[in-house]
Amino acid sequence: MRKAGLLLGGCVRSWKSVRMASSGVARRDLLANKVALVTASTDGIGLAIARRLAQDGAHVVVSSRKQQNVDRAVAALQGEGLSVTGTVCHVGKAEDRERLVTTILGINVKAMALMTKAVVPEMEKRGGGSVVIVASIAAYTPFPGLGPYNVSKTALLGLGKNLAMELAQSNIRVNCLAPGIIKTNFSQVLWMDEAREESLKEMLRIKRLGVPEDCAGIVSFLCSEDASYITGETVTVAGGAPSRL
Amino acid sequence: MRKAGLLLGGCVRSWKSVRMASSGVARRDLLANKVALVTASTDGIGLAIARRLAQDGAHVVVSSRKQQNVDRAVAALQGEGLSVTGTVCHVGKAEDRERLVTTILGINVKAMALMTKAVVPEMEKRGGGSVVIVASIAAYTPFPGLGPYNVSKTALLGLGKNLAMELAQSNIRVNCLAPGIIKTNFSQVLWMDEAREESLKEMLRIKRLGVPEDCAGIVSFLCSEDASYITGETVTVAGGAPSRL
Amino acid sequence: MRKAGLLLGGCVRSWKSVRMASSGVARRDLLANKVALVTASTDGIGLAIARRLAQDGAHVVVSSRKQQNVDRAVAALQGEGLSVTGTVCHVGKAEDRERLVTTILGINVKAMALMTKAVVPEMEKRGGGSVVIVASIAAYTPFPGLGPYNVSKTALLGLGKNLAMELAQSNIRVNCLAPGIIKTNFSQVLWMDEAREESLKEMLRIKRLGVPEDCAGIVSFLCSEDASYITGETVTVAGGAPSRL
Amino acid sequence: MRKAGLLLGGCVRSWKSVRMASSGVARRDLLANKVALVTASTDGIGLAIARRLAQDGAHVVVSSRKQQNVDRAVAALQGEGLSVTGTVCHVGKAEDRERLVTTILGINVKAMALMTKAVVPEMEKRGGGSVVIVASIAAYTPFPGLGPYNVSKTALLGLGKNLAMELAQSNIRVNCLAPGIIKTNFSQVLWMDEAREESLKEMLRIKRLGVPEDCAGIVSFLCSEDASYITGETVTVAGGAPSRL
Hints:
With 245 residues, the first copy, chain A, is an alpha/beta fold. The first copy, chain A, has one domain: Rossmann fold (3-Layer(aba) Sandwich). The first copy, chain A, is 39% helix and 16% strand. In chain A, β2 (34-38), α1 (44-55) and β3 (59-64) form a beta-alpha-beta unit. Chain A starts with 9 loop residues before the first strand and ends in an 8-residue tail after the last strand. Chain A binds chain D through residues 28, 157-158, 161, 164-165, 168, 173, 180, 205-207, 210-211, 214, 216-218, 220-221, 224, 226-240, 243-245, and chain D through 28, 157-158, 161, 164-165, 168, 173, 180, 205-207, 210-211, 214, 216-218, 220-221, 224, 226-240, 243-245.
């Protein structure tokens, strides 16, 4: 279970204008000359992904709804020598956003669709791009007591298929990530008592809960040229929990 | 592709008070003493399902948003000697509904969830029931140009999984039907020129488009006692079009 | 878990020559004038399916590898007034069969493919037919300690897709059934100690293990005209255990 | 469609004894100190994967059934400065192998299972490893005319799930790759006339057939530490062809 926000791993090629001055860290060149906008990225899975994309050479734009969270995350990542800037996320006009946030379905699905549409022109100008939508294993097997969250995650799988179809002509690939149970503030309720954590582990093949970093490498991979023939797919990162064939 | 409405094949046991006087037609007893509420059932797939459930012995409540459509369908089915009454469908309060209908996602997912919740107490009183949600094969492989429709159908698959989990303790089973391309007014745009129809057929194993009646038998089956160990599943009725393993 | 045998619910139209004299029981006409060959049908799920198909009006040919088991099942079903005959199942020549039975993969997949091919000419002569392959939920989520069984069940899902494609032109539909944990002699090891049965039930939505009869209605349905637009699909009968979207 | 062989991307940690002397090419360190055994790797997808794993820092053991093919591939890769050795693949004893190769199902499924079991002790000694099985999109949607091939690929998806379950305790992860239509000698029949290639492309979102290199990056990723929470999953590399949700 993760924050009811969104992740947009939109890697835009060579958006040079926003590149920061070079930093001291050694970087792999996987995502060199790319810009990544990562929404809901001030902690948990989003933050781990933002850090990883920056470590792999992208300039990363960290985003969230609260200015102070954005500032804190940007400072932390810049302190690690990474090329990062921040922005507060606006989903359309304020009044629209108000209405959107009234429902998790709205937040998770419509906002994701709107965000993607918003960055498409920018990606098209650069000749293409890559979008990674963070769904959840709850899209396949619902978490108890979290109906709207679960349904919104299933809907995201459909959104990924649709955007992959619509954006292929613009050379934009769209894939989904379906994390299992990852230890974050948001999922705390699921694992904070030990008995519950043990019972969760029994459904897993790998006998530990995930950490946000487990989700970061695959996003970097999906944004890279190595994934240029992969679109409309979902990769599950869940320690072997039952998902699908 | 079918009407952006919903189908709720909620078969409630022995809701005797609304049974009509017996009719002259011979009926199988599969759904005897059950009441079926079928939404969006004044034409196309919904109407075929309503007719079939009534032929199989249920008392059927036909429902739609327009009074005149309801009246026409009820008259037609009663003319066939079937036990049918009608109601105009209200999804919550008018103002809520207004907001809901602003989006297909709202219509298809939230309304379905609300409708189900609304009939649950009635089903519980009778000791259980069965819900069949009409999704679409577009939930798996999107129809071009119909993004919100497609995504809402994917979301319905998730809704089915969630309701199956939540309602099992009330002895209510929840399953989905995923029709392929069925010849209805609603899907007309997909098949009305012949070349297009031919190209659609090429993706099918069975070389014809479906008809609404193709969807009716499985709904009756899923509402019957024969399906008492089936919940949380989706049955695809699509002439062998690619769906999933 | 069920017997490593096969089920072939091939309903052939009006194979009148083998119909037995009419019996006293009242029957529904769903499968009137059809002949059903049910393999591995002398107990458990296969027997329940054979009984149901006969009750629904088909003439049923019960089959198994041992003469005495066939005789016992035929006698029992005839004693219920059903139209049933028996045959010992030969999968090709004896020496081929020997080699086949050396592996579960062989038994479950190749034998199923060979059997189907063997009955196809008969079905074609009658204008079409229906095949139902009994796979298992273990095809999606493996049962511990039963690797070859599990893999063979996954392979059967693929076989169903392939046969559906190949046989559609002969008007033969092919579908799969994926039972969950059904109480049979074969699955005994999974549920015979009570603690184990309880832990199994926890993964289910419907809090009981299945019985063979839970699998019978859907096979009858899939063999009937009501399913004439359903091919290449799998229906899971598993009390809501996690399977797939 | 690809060679009816297998790929075993078993990356074993620090099998130093077989490391070759360092070469002149700059390498990323993703797979440093790992040994990769790649079966059926003397051309096509297998060769592309072998090359990529070596470029990413692994020592690669190229393997195939014919000595001369192995020699040629080893020479080519060593000529690129990569750390590669070769071996002719023996699946068990000769007589067993004879029987195995009589069927594609045998080759693709049993041989894969046997190979994996054979390398497990080696991986266990080193504390863990990673296996990548090359299935095919034909596992989900069969290629016409290739029944046994298709079914064997579906079976491989099940094998992946089973091995993931069985080997997790040995810290060995097992995943599948499902390539779409990749331009290789083996798949030539599918695309060599231009009209056919065009019609294939119509089912894709990305309007080109794949090349072997499209499959290489994901295998390297799945063998790396970045994928340490991914097991029992299948990644489809198929240009957006319909697969599954």
